[in-house]
Specification:
Layout (H helix, E strand, L loop, with lengths): L8 H47 L6 H81 L1
Length: about 140
């Protein structure tokens, strides 16, 4: 019997490459989301630290309080900007997660088809070997 050959092997390989590409895109988008979250925490911590530094003084000057107020307003606007960016990142992460799952589903369909065809080929090979063994046995009996 001839060697096993899966007709859709190139398609299966291509689907595997697609799945890997989608996973890389997911990792990139997720890394961006993590970076935005880190930046958000950093701004919040910086604002809190500045507030503690000024308010912890025995006597704060009006200029220092005005600067703190301006900085707090700036950090609020930055937090709002980052919140929008984070929402966008989370949306893209969700979309990319769906794309990864779909690519993996398509790849698994072809892999299962390949496994079924391989099993059928192996069953055919076993039948052919059994037939040949039977014919060989009968030929030896006939001698």
């Amino acid at each position: 019997m001839k060697k096993f050959r899966f007709d859709l092997e190139r398609v299966r390989e291509w689907r595997g490459q697609q799945a890997q590409l989608e996973e890389l895109k997911f990792e990139r988008v997720n890394a961006e989301r993590v970076a935005v979250e880190a930046e958000h925490r950093k701004i919040r911590a910086s604002r809190d630290e500045a507030g503690r530094a000024i308010l912890g003084q025995a006597a704060a000057k009006a200029q220092e309080l005005a600067a703190l107020d301006a900085y707090i307003r700036y950090t609020w606007s930055e937090e709002a900007r980052l919140a929008k960016r984070l929402a966008d990142c989370e949306k893209r992460v969700s979309e990319q997660r769906a794309a990864v799952m779909e690519a993996q589903r398509r790849l698994k369909l072809l892999e299962r088809l390949r496994e079924r065809r391989l099993a059928a080929w192996e069953a055919g090979l076993a039948r052919e070997e059994e037939i040949q063994a039977g014919e060989l046995f009968l030929a030896r009996l006939g001698r």
